[in-house]
């Protein structure tokens, strides 16, 4: 915090708070906010009726429950004011207090806090927490590994024909995948995209009423959150496999060969010292050389942890130098509007030696019976 | 917008955007933002790979997809700048442009926009949208009614003993309730709280491994989102029933009698012209007169619509004058730490004549076999 010039972190919705404390704010309107000064005691402002849910933090954090007719923004303002006064009286600085707020705190909270603290200056908390959270420790990698293995079991069932596609709606296939994610040990399903035929060309397609037909390919991208035994905070899985229902067309086969190669080349490029954007570049080069560059319409990947998407991002402009513990997806895609889409995604973690793949389900284009 | 002094609405995460357009931003980090000036054309800034998901808006909204290496905050800033210049050149105003951002937009978006637009002043979009969204039209009431009826079916199953509690974990009971919410027609489960025995005293208790025992009461509070056929936007259900597993203690019976009366009196107080806080006051008075005032630790209710919790709030300080179309929960609770909790919740909608209850499951303390 001192290095980043942040005097007080204000952590609400999002992953910073559970990452630090094991307790996450409910995704609702009553304000939960950890007030964490660089040089003072941490106080968790929490709705009174949610206070019983807060686990014991061993005295590291003082609890300040607020009643239904209290103003929690004024409470936070007073706590920040105390921190600012202490800092000023110690001669540390006479500049305005600088605050770092959770990326996913609600804008309404920031608007209210800015009215309460008009002299403060603001940044996102992730200038402090982002680089720390991006590098996973051993227990975090263990949780990501378990989540990846659970997602692999669902991918294997999909590729093995245990989740029928032909003649069923995308929505029903998606529901099957979601149920299997839970059966495999996830506590929560985050998404289960099924994009069949031309719908596959929309990378974030929402599974709908379309019936999967013979000869089509379907993009299946799914993941959930899994907490290891005893942990209150879970880590995410995220995997994509594209399957063909009956023999795919030569165009699909040719494009998939490019896709599989692009993904393999990108995974092979991951090692300490490489920049995140370089991993994107090598994947993109393979697709472009095959004349399909304009069909690869999204970044190659995103960091993953407590959040489905977090730093670093595998995209031009993210110059993060990879180090052991960085975990992210490698997921090139090829999309032909009106015809088909395909994507191949694994989660990887950077090791001292190079890279560990957290997904091991087969990467070829599985062909299901039609 | 002109009345509220807001020049441009900036709508991202949350319900304002789907309420206006039928399209909701994905709850992820790529920026979706509707730029809606008071006197110009609306533009939806949307991630390129999500653009295929946007439904046809009939020419009311221009789409501006952004590519993976573009800066969407700069795009929004330029659109706002154009609006500000047009306004200044028309002589409307020389004050800084005033912007209204979605309550649930991410704080990181607001921090970035403030750096991009340092002269702008900020408020929440809900100064414009809140009062409009709070009053539901006929189609919205129909959706809330359908969601309420679906939740009632699950409540009836619970009260009828079809969802066994005795000897099962809260988590398993919660999973049953969640599945039945889907079976009853919800597209999404938002929560399924099961707080048994002393856990019931924590109003937002997360269903866990505790096994429900004989003679205990359990607070079951659950709801989901239901979109009527053809609609892309769903509305929420939210109901609480407390059930006893075997004969409850005299203390529980006595407290429940107070609870049921408090809820009935509050529902009866709902009609056009009454203030939201008055409904809270009458419920609180009943509980206080029974000597249990300090056991009723939360507000009496919250508005409901596309969001589970939205304006108005049934709490001291919310002076909203109720009008036909206001929809909210009426849910007093009594909580005895270490022993038990109880809550009784229905959704109501204000009518020209008074009030319509959107939940009809029995309100007495159902006693299940033990």
Keywords, separated by commas or semicolons:
8 helices; about 30% helix; Creatine Amidinohydrolase; alpha+beta; 2 domains; about 375 residues; homodimer
How would you describe the overall organization of this protein?
The structure is a homodimer of 370-residue chains. In chain A, strand 16 and strand 17 form a beta hairpin. The mean pLDDT of chain A is 95. Chain A has helices at residues 16-21, 72-89, 107-116, 126-134, 138-159, 170-183, 250-269, 276-289; strands spanning 8-11, 33-37, 42-47, 61-66, 98-101, 121-124, 188-196, 217-226, 235-236, 239-245, 301-303, 310-314, 327-330, 333-336, 340-343, 346-350, 355-357, 366-368. In chain A, helix 2 (72-89) crosses helix 3 and helix 7 (250-269) packs antiparallel against helix 8 (276-289). In chain A, 31% of the residues lie in helices and 24% in strands. Chain A has two domains: 8-132, Creatine Amidinohydrolase, Chain A, domain 1 (3-Layer(aba) Sandwich), CATH 3.40.350.10; 135-368, Creatinase/methionine aminopeptidase superfamily (Creatine Amidinohydrolase, Alpha-Beta Complex), CATH 3.90.230. Chain A contains eight helices and 18 strands. Chain A is α+β, with helices and mostly antiparallel strands and 370 residues long. Chain A starts with 7 loop residues before the first strand and ends with a strand.
